[in-house]
Every structure is written in structure tokens, then in C-alpha cells.
Amino acid sequence: MVQASSQNPQVRRLIVSIHDVSPRHEGAIDRLQEQLERHGARTPAMLVVPNFWGEAPIVRGTPFATRLREWADRGIEMFLHGSEHRDTSRHDGWIKRLKANHMTAGEGEFLGLSGVEAATRIAMGRTLIEDIIGQPVAGFVAPAWLYGPGAIDALQSADIGIVEDHWRVWDAGSGRTLARSPVITWATRTPVRQKSSLAVAAIVRSIPGPRVMRLAVHPGDVGSDRVRRSISRTLDTLRRHRAISRYADLVDDTRSAA
């Protein structure tokens, strides 16, 4: 396995993350962590949802809040991942409706928000998570990687750090691209989507790919043996010639290259 090295824009990197970190998914998060650690990803980034679907609030002083702080103290990068992860916006235009209805199951929370509403949710979630973990969040990732214009404006004003979508990682304040990189992820919502994501993962394992690759897992992945095996195979394959890295390493790479 390639050894990680900061401030080296030539290093081929693999960044691993766990999405939808919430008290609602605590058991699944533990299983994902155990699986990733067995395959070399000991400190995957965590994308934290303050109140998943309005039904699982993270509360200061609770055992789950304590775990978040312990994970952050271990060096795990903590990202704010929306507010509720639920899309309640009314979308105008067929492109937005297509994204909202077909790219996710009603979870593109930040796709249709105004700049004011997006900024409010980001500020509230950021305050909660940073108060719990005792350090700044690493950045923000919108649920389902979907951003509307209001969300983009709010993120730039908030200067929250690192942001990503399906194809790119960038700095929220400056807009500077840190990496152009696809996300490898698995869909378990329907049999057709699952087969498609398994096929994509198999293809990715067989081609060189860009310098930076990202692998993202979700709590729903633990319910499928086929998906779990695919995650393990993909992680093992990609890490043979890549350093398992942090998002912060992308910032270092960009500074070094400049």
C-alpha cells in the first residue's frame, strides 16, 4: 500500500467517507467503521447530519455526542452534512425536478433552498457540531451531493472549508478546485440501482482512474452482502497504488503545487 504523504501533489490519493452519521444509524456506522478499518481505512471522514429527517436530533451531552467528539479527537474529519437530509422544497424547472426525484429519494435538502434559508441551516448545524467536537468542522457536503444556487452562495459567504459534489472537491470561500474526482458509491434503494452501482464499482476497479479517488459508504450499505463485498474489493484494489488520505491533504497538495 502507498504511504500517505502531505504536501505532495504527485501522490495518488484515496479518500474514504461515511455518510449520514446520526444517532439513527449508530449501529450501521459501527459496522461500516469496522469493515473500513479491516481494509486499511482507519480514520474515514464522517458526514454528520444534525437531525436526520427531523427524527434523530444530535443533542449535546448525550452518549452519541460524546462519540462524535472522541472520533474527532482521533483525527477523523467531521463534515456538516445538511441539516435534516430531507428535501421539502418545491422545485421549479424540469432539471431541478429531475434531480430531486430521480437522483435521490427526496433527500436533496439543499437543492431548492434560498440563500437565506441555506445560510441559516448551515450556521445552526455548524454551531451544534463544532460545540460538540470542540474544533472547526472540516467542511460541508450537501445531502445527495446536490446544491442549488442559494446553497452555493451561502457556502461561499460562510467560508466553511472544504465542499464536494459528485465530481469535484473545492474550497468554499475561494471557489478554488482542490480535486476533480468522481465519487464511488453504492445504491441500495432498488435492485436495479444496486446492480448498476455494483457494475460501476467493478469497472472502476479495473481502470487507472484520476489521481484522486473518493469512496463513500452509507448506512444502507450494511444490509446487502453483495454491496459489502464490493466495498471491500474496491477499497483493497484502490489502496494498492494510492495513499489513503484526508481531505486536508488535498489542500496541502494545492498549496504545494502553487
TrEMBL record:
Protein name: DUF2334 domain-containing protein
Endpoints of the signal sequence: none
Origin: domain of life: Bacteria
Organism annotation: Sphingomonas panacisoli
A biological process term (GO) from this entry: carbohydrate metabolic process
Pfam families, sorted: DUF2334
